[in-house]
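**User:** I keep going back and forth on a fold encoding question. It is easy to fool oneself when nobody else works the same problem. Could you pick a protein and write out its sequence and tokenised fold? Could you put it straight underneath, so I can go through it closely?

**Assistant:**
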Amino acid sequence: MRKTSRSTHSTLNELNITPLLDLVFVLLVIFIITTPQMMNNLEMNLPSGKPPKTKDKPKINNIAVDASGQASLNGQNVTILELKADLQQLKSEDPDVKVSVKGSDDVNYQIMVSVLDVLRQLDITKISLATQAP
């Protein structure tokens, strides 16, 4: 009588997943490569080459803070509360008010934060910080 081994004639009980994993990794690499191109659509309004229609310069209100902490609006010395009232009046006259803020090199940082906080409270968004080259 002939003996046969069960191991050579047994059915395949386990599925070989190596080709399936290869396919998954290939798809993953494809998605990693193609996703940044799909998400790279930034809406941007570019300026035109035409000159602006209005030739008059915009009115820019200057706020300066000196080393002693004294603030001034357009050359007039004001306190922080007076600055807020004056800016509120300017904003009521022109809702699109523009402000330039310049601080001395030795000014206390908290005073500059107070000035910028007044601008934030009044919802003035067109702000520039004036700097001076060394």
The mean pLDDT is 82. The chain is about 40% helix and 15% strand. The first helix runs from residue 6 to 9. The first strand starts at residue 60 and ends at 65.
